[in-house]
Amino acid sequence: MRRSFFCLFVFLFFCLFFTFQIQAQQYITLGVPTSLKLIEGYEGHKAALLAAEEINAKGGIKIGNEKRLIKIESLDIRDGEPGVPVQEALLGIEKLILDKKIYAAVVGNFRSEALLAAMDIYSKHKVINIGTIAMTPKFQEKILSNPEKYKYSFRNCLDSKYLSQYIQNMMKFISKEFGYNKVYIVTQDVLWATATGSLMEKWFKENGWTVAGFDKYPVGATDFSAGLMKAKSAGVQVIMPIFDMPTSGILVKQWKGMKVPALMAGFISPLMGSKAWKTFGSDIDGLMNIVFEIGYFPIKAYPPTVKFSETYFKRWKEDIQSGHGAAPAYDTVYILANAIEKAGTLDQDKVVSAIQATDMEGVIGRIKFDKGHQLIFGDNPKTAAVGAVMQWQNGKMAVVWPQSIASDKIVKPGWMK
Amino acid sequence: MLIYGLINSAVLALMAIGFNLTFGISGVANFAYGAIYVVSGFITWIFINKLNLPYPVSAISTILIIGVFGAFIYRFIIKRIRGLVISEVIATFGISIVILEFLRYVGFIGFKYSLPMFLSGSVEVLGAYVDIQRLLIIGFVILLIIALYLFTHHTKIGRAFRGIAQEEHTSLSLGINPDWIASLSMGLGSSLGAFAAIVILPLGTITVDGGYDVLINALSVCIVGGLGSTFGIIIASLIIGYAQTLTATYLAPHWTMIVSLFAILIILVIKPSGILGHQKELEERV
Fold this sequence. Notes:
The complex is a heterodimer. Chain A is of the alpha/beta class. Chain A is 43% helix and 21% strand. In chain A, the strands form four sheets. Chain A has a seven-stranded mixed β-sheet with strand order 8-7-9-10-11-16-17, with helices on both faces. Chain A has a six-stranded mixed β-sheet with strand order 2-3-1-4-5-6, sandwiched between helices. In chain A, α3 (86-99) runs parallel beside α4 (112-125) and α12 (326-343) packs across α13 (348-356). Chain B is mostly helical. In chain B, 74% of the residues lie in helices and 3% in strands. Chain B is built from twelve helices and two strands; from the N terminus they run ααααββαααααααα. The longest helix of chain B is centred in the N-terminal third of the chain and has 27 residues, at 55-81. Chain B is globular, with a radius of gyration of 19 Å. Chains A and B meet through β8, α8, α9 and α10 of A and α1, β2 and α10 of B.
């Protein structure tokens, strides 16, 4: 009797052992270490899950003769939340690498300093990292400073240099269309926003614009009347906002309420998604917003965006609200899958080479990386990844720039005519 | 600037009235006040958007629910530690963190949470266009102060409130149950916080982090005006509100965040009990 039990125990042990072995072989684990409670991280995680499910539904990633399924392991490292030390975020990343044995990380850090520090961890463990949120140009500088060491890190989203270029293009376009050259800058009082504002102030002055004022509002501000009154009395034609705090929608509401006769054109994160119209109503009509990466809402001129936004809605029963991070996260999983299939192996160095050579169609446009492992942006989705300028027009997110995907022309708010 | 300064002052006063009332009567500094403000916004949002209740029904239901919730906090938590000031602060601040972080944990993130305006549109006042909702806030503050005055001077419970606030032990000898009154004051203070949320939040969005900002604003107004003094907080709101507007107009908007902190610093140096506060006034004179 005892011998039978012993045999049964040994049999079950081996069954379990081999089951785990088989499972471990079947999956390629991708980590999503990010701030899951912030909208870009929350939606980026869901977009990555969607891509993984699609790939798994087709049998997985082909490596030689076998197919491997993708498994997503997420961890809320909270580095985008105020007061969370960088060290805590780094510990989270290392935990994912060591405990979950992730092959690669996607979505990734919010804060630039956390990303720069995390690059060393990814290099140490030879884990591929394709981030879609943090935007510092120091990322490329660090890679170019030691390409061999930092070759495992890539960025598949806009960086702050490209953001400045897009805002400049928007202002050139407004100037060309209406002949405007007087602007008032309002930004959130945080480093990335004030830095972008300062860069733009310099650019405006060098390009014949008059900057009537530059106001920085503290995080959580709910009254922007002082700046708007100054802008109105200065007779500016454009107000350029740079904000990502939730209360910044009030700025646009007050702009309409106070009937300030100027275009509102810049970046206000809470007003990027379809729900903004439901939240703020027609008060945001006429606002022009920079879309960091296309793909999160349907653009007829570029069909992959239509397909992706429909698929995302079907899977998660809600639209993407963030103009940054989610669509690139979806593409990132495909970038990895394609690179692994091309390399025909999971050897990190060979897969990194395949990612460097990526040239594929994504929902954010054509995906190619430069020598600093930064995604290349342009103004045509057939040749490069693309950001855009959209304007709220009667509840519709109308693309007004670039010409390659524009569906509408800029409409001035009613009180300006 | 005149009109926006007044509106800013009204917003600050509305935020602080509930906190002040609870402290003035029960002596409890309710550090969960900011969390109560935020949770009121989310409850109203759920009633309107998920249960499809009419706005007035949602608003009144929220005020009542939050009132009961506030009274429960007193009965089941604060009552056991009443009089131990540090313990009260730790307990209420702990409740605040639990509520706010729970809201964050269950997914109240993003920009979609907003309450509808009572009346949309704007009107021209003294040469400046102002949202009607902002003007309504001024009206609500005036009405609220009148209502509170009538309540505390012409109702039995209101008189009991004042009795406890003036001299708890003597009130006890007159048959007033201090725990019951303190519990009611906590409930009423919480309801006033909910009312403030329903009136102010249509101007923007409901965010978890907003709870901490509301607490800081309420605290600064109460400290400057004098903890427990309704007229003190009105004066303090006007001072801080106009100082913030003047700072934003003539200096720079990002300095507005230190105005209230600077006001606290000055008042603590000159008159630690606040402009019209009576706490520790005797010690100050000595």
